[in-house]
Structures are given as structure tokens and as C-alpha cells.
Amino acid sequence: MQTRMYRSFQGLLLLGLCIFFAFKAANGQLTWYINSRFIPLTIFGIIFLAVLAQVVFTEIKRSRQHELEAGHDHDHDHAPAPVNLWFMLVPLLIGVLIPARPLTSSAFSTKGLNTNTPLVSADSSVQVFETDSEKRNILDWVKLFNLEENTSQFVGQKASVIGFVYFDESLGEDQFFVSRFVVSCCAADAFALAIPVEWHGTSDLKQDSWVLVKGTIESITLNDKVAPLIVADSVIDAPIPSQPYLFP
User: Fold this and answer.
1) How far is Cα of residue 98 from the mean position of the Cα atoms in its chain?
2) Average pLDDT rounded to a whole number, residues 51-56
3) Which of 51, 115, 129, 144 has a beta carbon 3.0–4.6 Å from 227's, enabling a disulfide?
4) What is the CA angle 106-193-32, rounded to 5?
5) Do 181 and 190 form a contact (C-beta atoms < 8 A)?
6) Domain locations in the chain?
7) Residues in CB range of 44: below 8 A, 6 or more apart
């Protein structure tokens, strides 16, 4: 009986994990945890969990049927220690009970804030360079200013980016950062990229609110490096994107 209870717990746990990850995949929240390129592998994992759960429940059913045919309703095996199952249950409970949400500026204390990124290459710069200026995101602009020596060629170009608001003491009174987190593998390695924005209505903005910034690109020196600055024509409230992170 103890062994069957252990296997039942094991099967339910596998099924719970399967349903949890399937739900996250269905509502698009998987990419709040991992890079989108790992989605196919995660889908395979969901299917594998479903198969394992089915195998466990089939085994339990056969064991029960065998006991009924044998005329007794107990087993003599000692059940394995359930400690390992509790370790698997804890993250599942955390995922279910704590609402999922994208990283915010509260993570800056541990992850920091960057106005330049090491995750760039010459090949990626060429593609971004050919992209229409108003279709470039925060990561695209930072890439260009990191790789191109002649950043003056970008001054005067139109920009349109979405990100969340972050206020920093290093900026002027009418300036703020528009920020996005960049995820290389998973949320654990995420780091924040930001572009300073100059806007006369900065005092009306709220920390971590998502905005659409439209304006003209200028250059500014931050931490001894040239970085893009958006002189905003408009800053309007925007909903959180279905994909809040950027991927290099």
C-alpha cells in the first residue's frame, strides 16, 4: 500500500508539472523564464512528462489489478523515501502560488543596469544597421553605438522604442531611462539595457511604467562611453508587451 501511495504521488507530481508547463506555454509566459529558442525543447519536455505520468498510472493500475486477482490488497515492498518528491513539489507550488511577472527595476540591485552590451557581433550589427530606424528596439540601438565607430551617422535619426521607466540620479531633471531586460538563456542570466531619454514631462511618469518613446537620436557620454540618447517628441503609456524581454 505504501509503495502504491508513493507511486500515486509521483504520478500526480509528474502530471502537475506537465500541466503547469503546458499552461505557461499556452499563455505565452514560458518566455518570461527562458529564451524563446528553448521553447521547442521545453515542449518536448512537456510531452515527456505526460508520457512518464501515463506510465506511472498504468503501472499503478496493473499493480492494483494484480492484487485483486491474487486475492489480497497489500504489498510487502517498502516505499522509497519521498524526500526527493518533496523537493520537486516545492518549485511547482512556488510557480503556482506566486503570480508570474516580468523582471522590473527592483532587480537592478543584483543585476545592474547597462547602457552597453557585450552580447554583440559584427554580423548582427550589419542586420540592425539595415533595419529602419523606427523599427529598432533598445538592444538594436545599443548594438549600433557599441560596434560603429562613427556614431554621428545615427544622430538625427527617428527612434520608436518600448520599455519601462527607470529614474537614476546620474541623469538630469528632465531625463529618465527607458529599459528592457535582455535574456540570453533564462531569466537568471537576464541583464537590463537602457537608453536615456530627454523629456519635459518626466515628472509625470511612474517608475516601472511601460511607455512608448518616440523622438530623435542624439549621443551622450555615460561611464566614459558614447551611448544613444532619445530626445523625445512623445512619451505615452503602453501595455506590457506579450514578450517583455529582448533576445540577443
Assistant:
1) 16
2) 91
3) 115
4) 65
5) yes
6) 2-97, 105-237
7) none
